[in-house]
Every structure is written in C-alpha cells, then in structure tokens.
Amino acid sequence: xxGRPAVLGIVLAGGEGKRLMPxxxxxxxxxxxFGGAYRLVDFVLSSLVNGDILRICVLTQYKSHSxxxxxxxxxxxxxxxxxxxxxxxxQQRLGPRWYLGSADAILQSLNLVHDEQPDYIAVFGAxxxxxxxxxxxxxxxxxxxAGVTVAGIRVPRxxxxxxxxxxxxSDGTRVERFLExxxxxxxxAGAPHQVFASMGNYIFTTKVLVDALQxxxxxxxxxxxxxxxxxxxxxERGLAQLYDFDTNHVPGETPRDHGYWRDVGTLDxxxxxxxxxxxxxxxFNLDNRRWPLYTHPGQLPPAKFxxxxxxxxxxxxxxxxxxxxxxRSVLSPGVTVAEGAVVQGSVLHDNVRVGRGAVVRGAxxxxxxxxxPGATIGVNPQRDAELYTVSKSGVIxxxxxxxxxx
Length: 406
Description:
Helix content: 10-25%
CATH architecture of the largest domain: Alpha-Beta Complex
CATH topology of the largest domain: Spore Coat Polysaccharide Biosynthesis Protein SpsA, Chain A
Distance between the termini: 57 Å
Radius of gyration: 22 Å
Shape: globular
C-alpha cells in the first residue's frame, strides 16, 4: 500500500511433516487439505494478503509438486501493481546441497531479497491454522526499533517441549531468552503454568536478517534453523522483541475464535482442529467475510443430498453426493456416501468414496480412498491397528488411495 514501508513476505513451506504421516507421504505438509476445501498454506497466505503484504515468496523443498501447483494456480495477484505470490523451489544456489534448515533456506534465497530490496521481511511458517493481521505486528516492530519481532502465544508449560519458548524481560516485550523445545522452561511471571510459545512468525528489519544469516552460515556448530539458531543469536544481542498474539484483532472475529492458533503437526492435533470447525458456534469460524480465507474454488456443482441422505453438525463441500448418514464430519470436494453408509466424526479428503452399508468412524481418509460396500473403519480396533495408521488418541488414518479390504 502506498505510503507504507516495503515488506517482502517469505513463507517457509519446505517441511516434511513426518508426524502427520500418512497424509504427508505424497506431499509437503503445507499442501495437506484442511477444513474441506483449503490447504494448510492457504491460512498463512490469506493472513498476509489480507494484511496488505502482497509480494510473497513461498520456499518449498520436500515433495513440493502438489504445493507448487496449488500456489501457482490459486494465488494469482495483480501483475499490474507488481504484486505476486510465487513458489520458489530449492535451487542449490550456494552449491550442490539442499536446505540444511529454515535459516539456510532463506540464506540460499537471498537473491529474492536483493531483487526486491524491502525495508522489512515477514518470515512466516506455512503449516498452522489461524487468522492474523500482520500489520499490527509490523507496526509494533517499527515502533520498537527491534531487529526481529517474534509472535508468541501462551500455551501450557507442559507443552513447551513442542515449541520454541520465549522468555520476556521485565518490560514484557524484549526477549530475554529464546529456548528451542526446552523440557523444563521457566513459567511466566504471574502465570507460572504457562509459557510463550513461538508461532513461527517473525518480522525482521532487512539488514538485521541478512547480517544474522551470514553470521550463522559461518558458524560450523549451527543447525541453521530460525528457532534453533537465529533467534537465540539475536536474543543474545538484545535485538529480539515479543509480539503477544492475544493483542492481535482481526476484523470480523468472534469472541470464541479470537486468538485461535493451532499447530496441526500430529494426527491428533489435525483431527481435533477439524472438530473445532463444526459446532454451531465454532471455536474457529471459517466464515469471516471481513477477513476471508482464500483458496481455489474448483469447478464443481453444489453438494447434493438424495435417497434420504442427511448430514448434521458437518461441513460438506461442493461436488459431494450424500445418500447415507454423515454426522460431525468434514467432507472435501467430490466425496460420495452411498445408501446405508454411516460416516461419524471423520475427515474425508477429495473424492473419497464410501460404499453402500459401509461404516467410517473417527478416521481421516486421504484423497481417492475407496471404502467398499459393507467395509468398516473405526469399528474393530484390533483390525484397524493391523491395517492402518492409528494415533495415540485412536484416530485412524489412511493415506492417499490406500486400499481398504472389503
């Protein structure tokens, strides 16, 4: 926007997502379907674009074809205004090696920064579910004069080992310590059972980021990671500030979904986040017309219910044909549920077919899975454990096109 500082968005989307197998067996984690019609990468891109960050590079690496295609075909910006969202595959610009870590990914892509010459760089992760207005974080960053501002959210101290943990100084904003996945971090003053977890979203002053990347590249002991290397370095130099995500207010938000952010890095977290979508007053509301979520709409007819088919407390995408019974589930485009079939508490990706009289309960089925007539998933735990991936909480997951015996 004219009159505002120049900001380049860099989205880190090269993650393998091993904990989300088998959904990531054939694609990068940011390309995994979420909420019926979306990909995980759509959530960060929607926030950046809604927040007037309109020049964005998506750094990809692991099994990136599906992700590259989605970004290229969906995220078309105005070339007249010089805006773009572009996938940037690993290019081996610094030698015959792939990215060593998230910091190295940006180091190897500094040509993007040199070409754009932004005042600030927003480095955001690509695999979380949330809404955020990045302008508010940018304004704090500029006002504070920090070298880097890191977005943090309060989580239980018992969950600290899954995140980078930010210890704020007595002023509440300067970062005193940054610990990557600590097992026993200090609690917050006034809230000893909580810590600030890094959301993986950072805003850098350009010169500070470039300098830090070059210093990190020269350190043979570094893991070349944003949370494991750059943030501790900049914290020690007194250049890091905390942005409290709870202070971020998005137009059109509700009291229930204010401050919603989920790391869906495991099957259980992925499944539970879907349950947040389907209540009458959802914890995370997909329908916010003032801060929309964007994706490719597809060319499919509206969902159709016939032969007594019903769906309750569910999300049913275009192209679905429901002849059976669907409850508390999320259905992606093109799903068919035949007569007498029952789908309960499940997440079905594109073009899943549930045959006549089949039962699917508490499951996540990737695209093109064909459940034969009379087959059951989620009915016999012992059989399910022998045939499929089962999470710690008992969520059953089938990979893309996985065979289901009749």
